[in-house]
Fold these 4 entries.
Entry 1:
Amino acid sequence: KGKGKGKGGGGKAPPPKAKSQAKAPPVEPRKPLVTPGVAVKRLFWNPIRLNHDGDTVWHEIDQEGALIDTAELEFLFAEKSRHAQDSSQKASAPAPRKLQVLGDIRRRSIFVMLAKLPPLPAVVEAVAEMSESALGRDELDLLLSNMPLPEEVDMLRTSHPAADLSAWDVAEQFSMLLIEVPRYELRLRVWGFECSYAEQLRDFSAAVAELAAGCEVMLRSGILKHLLGLALFAGNFLNGGTQRGRADGFALEALCQLRTVKTSQADRAETLVDYIVQQMERGHPGELAAALARGGEAEIVRSASRRKLADLAAEVKAWRAQAEAMQRSALACAGDPALARHAEVLGMCCAEVDALMMLVEQLRMRWQDLCKWFHIDFDGPAKKTTEEFFGIWSGYLGDVQQSMTALVAREQQRRRQASRKSRAGSSASAASGRRPSPEVASVSEDAARQCAQQKSRRTKALFRTIRCALALAFAPAGSEPDDLARAAAVPVPDDDDDDDD
């Protein structure tokens, strides 16, 4: 398609192509020739050549000019000669490969650690002297996590026994210097135990205190007893006539199910927890607010639910055994003054841990009393842990708090609506201006008329009294009684007269 005919055909030859337009002559550079004094690095760009006249940013830059320090530019970006490059390459020939026996991951971990530590000789000296001023807890944690493993120690000591220390790579040098410190592992472990001792003791003591407070509040709080009693009475009523009714108590797991029992009324989306909260507010007003306040029963129970007595006792016991074992090992090194000094510190630590273990045992006995109080197994197959027990109560109190919050919100909304209705009714009555009914108007007019008549009679009597008094006070000497009577008989103002008269 689109081809011409064969050889014998009479097709015409295609017309010759038009010649391309002649290119414009190149514009000669306008700027003066600049030649650096030395070979410099080149900047590869596509230059723009402009005529003398024009209105571009390049023209303005050319008019303004710019002063640059060409000597500094020449110095900074001078191109090295081939001879200099060859000599530098010869000078920077790779040094002999250092000895390496550790794995890549292990080596990277040691490199990262060394970047966060003081110089290597200072680190080794601090470990030997167990100097608290040279290394802190963070540095000790890094050293403990990067201590050479037994198989690594064997490789370091047997792979190249005749090699000098400088022949090893940095990671291997650190390991070689560290294992040369006498009893380096015992030193680091004793030192690390002492650095973390105060914080660990504080954590254990806080756990014991929280569990002890939880046990005491469950044994002594009347508010929690009221909540449990309302749940029991409500459940017995709902289970009336069944085998589950008439219960003296119930398994505490049922407290978590109360929020799932919903009311049957379509206009009240409430649960059995809401009913119990309302009954608490009626029978024991203010108790729930106190229990849910900061530092109240709910917060104490929630804190206790995060602890496990069994795990706490086991951890304290293991901690005590660790301290005792390190103390014995340190005491066995009688000729080592640093370890002997820290052995005394470990002895004091063991004494404090013994006192903590006594508190844990007292807590265990208190937990046993609590299990007996709630009639649950302490040591049987159906026993509950402290985490389970306090977790159930924490969940129940959380449901109570949600219900209490909703109850308060509903009450506030009801009051706002009542207030708005009251204000709206008052405004409507004032704006309507309706007249009273005829009966009411008639009664009002009669009452007003009677009041006016009584006022008129009192006013007339008052005027008579005043006139008599004036006549007696200003009567001339020798006046007859008849004259005084006529003077007092002054007309009294009628009701229609103005009050000012």
Note: The longest helix spans residues 386-432.
Entry 2:
Amino acid sequence: KKYYVTDAINDTDSRDTTDLASLHGISIVEVDKIKKLFDKVDGDASGSIEKQEFVTMLRQLLGAKDFFDVPQRRLEDFWSIVDRDGSGNITFPEFVA
């Protein structure tokens, strides 16, 4: 039998992190950095990012000085790309993708 690093990982969060890193071809360290940003954006600590939290983050990342600096249509386009399952919330795996 072949053994992999994931075989030695028992806790679910670590296994999820490892799986996401492998799936997207990025390092575990990168996934951890993305998780920290996700947790920061998830202001209500619900475990998912709601649309308004996402819009606030996006405006900050794009350097919008005014509410209207980023057109609503553009925000909707970004949201539809990230909210892959159309649930109205972004889970961490969706956020990583």
Note: Confidence is low (pLDDT under 50) at residues 1-11.
Entry 3:
Amino acid sequence: SSSSSSSSATRMTAAVDPCDDVVLFMPDANESLERQLNNYVLAAMLATFANKAMVVLDAPRESICPSGEDDDDVDYPLAFSSIVKSPEWLMQGCPVPCRATRTYADWDDFRRSDSPVAFCTKDVDSISTGTSTTGRTTSVFVVGGDETRVYFDGYFRKKIEGAPTSVSYDWAVRAGAAPREAEVFSKLTGEEMYDYMGALLVRSDVLRLQQRIRDDTNKHIWAYAYPRGHRKTPHDAMYVRRGEDAGADPRAKRLYVDSYWDAASGIYDGATRTTRRDYIPLLHYMRHYHDVKCSGDLRRVYIATDDPVTVRREVDELGPETGHGVLFNNCHNIKFTVSKVKKILGSSACAARYARTVADISDFIVVRTADTFVGEFNSDWGKLIRLFRLALNWEVGVIGHRGMLGPAQKLAMGRRGGAEIDRSPVLLKDTKVAWGPMRPLSPL
């Protein structure tokens, strides 16, 4: 009968509702912004692989900006969802599940439990279907913070790397791949597979900024990062990470720096340049220019750092002033711009946190678009910058016209030789590793 047919159609529609099975990502407000961003992109990678919608549940404002600390009474957008706008293809029209019956604290308990999958009854219809699904049970996989990495290493990595080509093909399509791109992806393994997926997610706008953040970062970039009138001038960039921001584990950071100085005798000539310090000196980042042909042209280099006072002093020690810049190695005339001190930005605790967020994202934007990037992958920003400098090979010409990438000859992929560059399915815009591993040990 028509009645039974209608009922059957309704059941079929409800059965394919993407909100029946979702990933709930809970950013950890106690983590740095760069760690939250890395975890978010990794969670999006896992969600698309598992064919699940992903929605974000922010921490309560009180835990992000406690009352009494915002003395100018301004509503600063500090919650993760106020900074990043999740794309529709990732959310699939799904709301945060079961708001009427589950609080943030409830979900946080699930996140920290040994079994992060919870079931609850829907109390809001999804936007993605034309029928009511209220009252149905939804499965929620709760992740956030570093648990995302734990689940990747303990479960998803094996699944991803052992997936049949058909599964890999479908995963790529969900991340925005065209059929021929998905076909290429389905045949990749190891590092190239993760890089290709990363390039797909970046192209699909996985990390799109909310409008207010975009406006404020634009203002910051114009004011501090680019000399007036030179925004479109080609530039190189360095990320010099020191202090607490260089790594979450102080012991790991100490070992990282020590390994550099243990090898420094084979890097520098002259006793004065091998004086041991508790950081890797700017002079080491400058080694890249020893391999660049001398030119009288002015080069522009932006240095994003959490230690601008020391870095500016190191810049002054690189060579004599030329009137326009610094003459480095009696060869290169370089105009340096060093990022501003971030810890003193803002008039209150919440204002300072927001100003820091704007400054950090501005640095990220300037560095990811640089012609050449010099840095390392021991920091979360370094990993994220590398990800956003990846591009699918066939797109290089197209993206180059949009200004995101330079000429094809400026692209290099890890340790590949120039003869192989055209055969690489994914390319990395010119990136020099100052010290440490040539690539991150995990996708992010």
Note: The longest strand covers residues 295-305.
Entry 4:
Amino acid sequence: WAQESALLQTHAALDQTASLGVDLDATDAMDRVGVEHISRLYRSPFDLARFLKNGISAIRAALPSFSQEVPNMSGGLMKMATKLIEAITQILPPEISQSPVFMKFAKDVNVTLQGLTGALELVDALKVYAKEGNTDMLVNVLTSALDQVASVANNDFLSNTGYHIARFMSALSDVLQGAGTSLDFIEEGEQLSGISSLFSGLMAAIDDLVPVDLQNNNTYVDIVKGVEGELGGMLRDVLTFVYGILDSGVCWKKSLERERFRPTLCGPGYHFADAQWCLPDSGGGKAVRATCLYNAETQGQWCLQPCAPGYAPFNRHCKQRCLGHYYVESPLLCGSERGSVAFAITEMIVKTGIAAVTKKGLVDIAIGAGFMLASTMTSVVSAIADFAKPFGHSQCPEIFAGMDHSSLR
């Protein structure tokens, strides 16, 4: 399906100029105007915060449709597409956003995202999220949608302007992936790890978009302040839904971050530019994504190292295996008997007793741990603190990690 989509986009790019009757020189001039406009806006932390906020709002727009008992995948993707087009419009100058070329791009985005409803693995992932509250499945669907929009922008739009839009979609994916890992840690009661993962994803997005000479603490503070309200709202939306599904009497799998780095390898005829992209040596043609080293696993826009013993790869991090008495597997939990996600288990370590259940308390703890920007992320910290109140789940014992099923049963 992905190969067919790429071929269709390539043919569309070849026919675009002719079908729209646009003069090549005029198109090149429009492209230059777009790049200059975007580059100028990205030098403003307040503008960049506004763009990222709009992008997060587009992601958030899909959540109500995805969170129904029977997920409305088509409806959610169309709401997301509409808001993404609005967000992209804010980045572009009027002579592009009101042009026939952009109208075609917007239509292509809608058609492409609607096409995701035919991807069975994504349909199944959304069903798992709606049934079990597995946030990794939700993140997979959302990042796939962002990747498709990036592909349309890079292959079927103004060449260099489309490249910048693709980078913007990649930045939103960084935010989303950070939020996904954060949700795993928050559900386990690991609040500081949740803040760290969320912050890392946001910083990766900012560093990919902000010019190097403006990458400083003042810039980060301004952007975080402008974004954190919408980001905290998205986090709260998902956590509220998960809380409505999961039973408190469970054994949570632990998560570990996987060491990750950006791909930097380029094929013949290309050279590495920045932010995981390779540009043609000739100066013409399309940008392509860089690839990972041979011993690393490629996941989205990152290269990931192998997991530690006792843990298995799970999307973009590592998840503990279910062993011993708690041998029954599910995406988030381990249980002692087969049945529903809410397994009956023995309580081990109660996290609620040590979790900060007020915003101020968690801010103080986070700052003490070195997260100085925690005081600017009030909506995010509030959502995390509130979620800790009703959840005091025990974690699966570390003693079982790395042991063989057959020796324990």
Note: Residues 159-187 form the longest helix (29 residues).
